[in-house]
Design a protein that fits this description.
Chain lengths: 447, 447
């Protein structure tokens, strides 16, 4: 336990994870397209020696475009701009395996890794909305199973492309040999979804391969994570659920012959901080009071695959819900919401307030000391290797966390005082992958 | 004529456009993946008040990977990094319509335009190598005609997506209306290659639409340019060819009911500068002497669709060439090389030396005064609206041009003393496009 340290990721989301954050007087409603807003956030995370910052993404406009900030710049480009404004913090971009091609995606993440000096990470998603499908020549969302089969093959192809140049393939011998062609490898991939000859047209990047991240918690999602993910973002409402998820995923990784220490599990936490408990509660109320119930009802109904109206606000959820196996979109989100409602016997209005903070992630309202306590508790109890910090309001919530929670975690010896490594993999305590095509790859160890 | 000004683009290519540039003692053979190298180039172009910098691209590794720098970072990411290191110069990235999806590409260029404050441009290419096709699930290159049909539809979809948010759709009214949903438009595109519902998930960018650039000179390429391009990069070896191309393309634009002034034509020029003519010739020889004839022969043979060996070096091209209509790859490149060889009765060795500088672009070796003279001559004779400057060696060749040629062009009143506008469109004297979905679009003029 003496060596084990927390990992912290800052999940950057416009003006905050609370759906009503944009309505606060201090929030800039147009921050989503303002580089200086994101520079401020990334620099705050770096000041707090966070392992990484992270951007979610979906290639479609939000259905509730009128009601809240519904846009976002393409994450690999935005993170490239942030790479030039920071020097250590990791940069994790979400990108879809359903609506892209491995060659294009492998190039973008290789470029981000080169341009940032080894700080790139890829959050692998399959995208669960029909709106996205209809931007890419499809009428309907491909099935959950098909999306995950494609995702698995996509990741395989991408990893091969990242290995297609051996580290020392570029020699730059001015007598006329720029590269050793024998150390630049075609990948010759032929599969169900992709045929890709390779090699990639950029040399192996500083990290060898960008960090692989996964965030879905369906059975297929957990299997993908167990095979490939090096960090996992997850929504867990209770310590017991968190411990069960943690144990399950580490076990699955072991079944794939991986060292369970090489898969870092980071539950989401939406901290709402105040110098006293009542100050924190007041801050929470400022947000809850600004939720527009009509829109929140529509969104909850869509998650659950049912109809809901104003008349349902003060009732519990109906008994006859469709069941996770009937849901083709975000299965794990469905189950989380239903479990939360049943466990705490919540009304629809109460569910909406609980979900307002971070779409099912755990909201924790309290003092910096209390937030540090819960983080330490989950970390030492075997429910987390760290946390995906999702401030309800940005930039203020991230500044508060960095200025008031991080110092406590450092004083307790749980979190780094300064960066020890230069790359994202080094921050997460992960090795640089061995290149499968290198002559000595068979004999080298993974760590 | 008093108002007409030159436009200059700096075509950034690793350590220079001459194929042997990397072998010079001063060249960094690993510059392709070094951000600081490209920052230095972009800042030099901005110091010279160039309209733009430009990156070529192909989603495949060069066939001659062993013999010369064969890699490049993905252009939209690299230009995003350069956006943060500059404030005025335009940023033009090449991207493929054959191997991408309009929604993904529209997002990346929208993001580059937002992040750069309105400096993004897209060089539309269809990609002409089977190596690229084989990285994207195809066995063979799609035909020239199919590639250009797809390109035309791709551009249409992309332009619709860029228009899908009206400029004032974001209102940010904190009473609960973040955007006027009625001003965010689905595009409902259904075509031969694409079905895209839209809208885009980012608001309209500072330029309304990134600048559209085109560079192929086949019949299909010229038609695409006449319809959509606002700047055209072209390879023209002689003034007469340049005048014919210029007149033809302006005429074609007129046939598409466009103002011919809204399509800027920039032939490529590879300047090899010296303070005297003989100093310039010596610099040229340093490069020519470093060409490896074996590799150059292979490449020429591939362009022409024939076999060539060392025994052909001092002979003219064979009489029985296949003809442009037999070429499915880069048709205009084929014709340029054949015409050059026939017109000047060149041997294969001489062709190789002439092409070494810039793959068929016009090499001009001389003093800054002589380079300025030829630029002015083409500009006033109706062969060019400006030039695509392709230094044989980088960064030195760009610095030389900025420090020694630009001042002459300014002194003659041909080129700006300082930037007058902030966006790439403003540099090229082009209007911000009217949004097709805006209520008043029908009555507004285009300029």
């Amino acid at each position: 336990m003496s060596q084990r340290r927390l990992h912290l990721n800052a999940f950057l989301m416009n003006v905050g994870h609370h759906e009503a954050a944009w309505r606060l007087p201090e929030s800039d409603p147009f921050a989503a397209t303002r580089l200086e807003h994101y520079v401020q956030l990334a620099q705050a995370a770096e000041r707090g020696t966070f392992d990484s910052v992270f951007l979610a993404d979906s290639p479609a406009v939000r259905a509730d475009v009128g009601q809240r900030p519904a846009v976002g710049l393409e994450p690999t480009l935005l993170l490239t701009a942030l790479a030039t404004a920071t020097s250590r913090v990791g940069l994790i971009a979400t990108a879809s395996t359903t609506y892209d091609q491995p060659y294009n995606l492998a190039r973008r993440f290789s470029a981000l890794d080169h341009l940032s000096g080894g700080r790139a990470g890829w959050n692998i998603v399959t995208n669960a909305t029909v709106e996205a499908a209809r931007n890419f020549n499809l009428d309907e969302l491909p099935t959950h199973g098909e999306r995950y089969r494609r995702a698995t093959e996509f990741v395989e192809v991408t990893r091969k492309l990242w290995d297609s140049w051996e580290d020392d393939a570029q020699v730059g011998d001015k007598s006329g040999v720029w590269a050793e062609a024998a150390r630049v490898h075609p990948i010759g991939h032929r599969g169900e979804f992709f045929s890709v000859d390779g090699p990639l047209n950029s040399p192996r990047s500083p990290q060898g391969a960008p960090l692989l991240v996964q965030a879905g918690s369906s059975e297929d999602g957990k299997d993908l994570a167990a095979r490939y993910a090096e960090a996992v973002f997850t929504a867990q409402q209770t310590l017991n659920e968190g411990k069960a998820f943690y144990a399950d995923l580490k076990q699955r990784a072991t079944e794939h012959r991986r060292d369970p220490a090489e898969i870092k599990i980071l539950p989401g936490i939406v901290p709402v901080l105040g110098s006293t408990e009542s100050a924190a509660r007041r801050k929470e109320s400022e947000l809850t009071d600004r939720i527009v119930h009509g829109y929140a009802l529509e969104r909850l109904a869509s998650t659950l695959g049912i109809e809901l109206g104003e008349q349902d606000l003060d009732r519990p959820l109906p008994d006859d819900l469709p069941g996770e196996d009937r849901i083709e979109t975000a299965k794990s989100r469905y189950t989380l919401v239903v479990d939360l409602a049943r466990r705490e016997n919540l009304t629809v209005r109460e569910i909406i307030h609980r979900l307002g903070g971070g779409r099912g992630h755990r909201t924790f309202t309290g003092t910096p000391e209390q937030v540090a306590d819960t983080i330490e508790h989950w970390f030492t109890a075997g429910a987390a290797d760290g946390f995906n910090v999702m401030p309800a309001v940005l930039p203020a919530g991230l500044d508060d966390f960095v200025d008031h929670v991080v110092p406590i975690l450092r004083a307790r010896g749980l979190f780094r005082e300064e960066y020890e490594g230069r790359t994202l993999r080094e921050h997460y305590g992960l090795c640089r992958p061995v290149n499968r095509f290198a002559a000595d790859a068979g004999s080298a160890s993974r760590s």
